[in-house]
Amino acid sequence: MDLLLFREGASRSEGYILPSKRTSEGELNQLISQQGLVPFLETTQVLVGLLSAEARLVLANPALAGWKSALSGPEDFQQLVVPSARAGFDQLLREARQKHQVLQGELDLGLEKQPQRCRCLFVPLEDGRVLFFGEPAGLAFDLTEKYQRLLQRFEEASAELTETRRALERKQKEVQAVIAQADEVSHIDSLTLLANRRQIVADLQRQVTFSERYEGPFSVSMLDFDHFKEVNDRYGHAVGDSVLRFVALLLRDHVRSPDILGRYGGEEFLLLLPNSTVKAAGEQAERLCQLVRSTPITSGEITVAMTISMGIAQYRIHRENWEQLLNRVDLALYQAKNRGRDQWAVIE
User: Fold this and answer.
1) In whole angstroms, what is the distance from residue 326 CA to residue 328 CA?
2) What is the pLDDT confidence band of residue 272, given thresholds at 50, 70 and 90?
């Protein structure tokens, strides 16, 4: 429940706040919440106020502000205590501060000719100020007991809130993990576990941008399995997939770290070589062709011999875009296959 404070000079229905340089309209709400006493304000008959170190009324809830507005004196809280009860008020206030204990007592509040006996509760704060609670003695409540019950309820609610917050944090971590996994899956080819077409093309575009900006060399290789259709036709697509996956992982394990390998489509793969000239790409292509040629591939009881062909091109800075670069790489691959396969070719 939010604590309604009143603005100075307004009617009670509009609300008003007693002036203070040290406090804001929401401070009493915060103090009440910190002390676990928000439920205490559910009845308008309870008087709630914040007393400064000089016993001045800094802030008040609607019930107490209504009493104060009936007087014409300064904001000294003692103006709300009948003269005969002010000594008792001073003693309770002083002991609450000195002992830093919650104290309860009965005081006559209001006008001297029409006093109202109230059970009063003084709750000392760390900064020397005191929260004041007053309840008409005619109500069958014990303020200290009620205060303790409210504190217990507040502690229980705080424990429940803490557990709820921890559960939400755990759930949030689970959701973030699922999102991260989904994001990763969306960029990975499910068969070869390499970057899929969308990811490898995005990487190609990014590397072209870097090459344009920093004018550094950048080469691309496109490789294709030789006579792969014959493997599918002879042994079936299950064996064909096994061969494809085996060679893809073999290539991945023999490619240097900065280079990026991805499945472009079918049995075609793209290999991106940042900061590499066509000469370095050719040396790598020769090594990879030899690697695949000399590695027997097994799938169950079946052994398959496989070779690859590769096409290479170096990006022409400021002279072409990534699509034109891919077209030249594809043309180089076509030349390698026309020359007899199991080799690589370069388009300058």
Assistant:
1) 5
2) very high
Helix (H) or strand (E) holding 99, with range, is helix 86-99
In angstroms, how far is the first alpha carbon of the chain from the final one? 76
The radius of gyration of the chain's CA atoms, rounded to the nearest angstrom, is 41
pTM of the predicted model as reported, rounded to 2 decimal places = 0.51
The DSSP bridge partners found for residue 303 are 298
DSSP state of 76: B
Name the residue among 144, 143, 112 with its Cα closest to residue 43: 143
Task: State the amino acid at position 182 in one-letter form.
Answer: A
Residue 39 has pLDDT above 50, yes or no: yes
Average pLDDT over residues 48-77: 76
Calpha distance 73→79 (Å, rounded): 7
Q: In what order do the strands lie in the sheet with 308-314?
A: 260-265, 268-274, 218-225, 308-314, 344-347
Phi–psi pair at 111, nearest 5 degrees: -75, 150
What is the rounded distance in angstroms from the CA atom of residue 168 to the CA atom of residue 174?
10
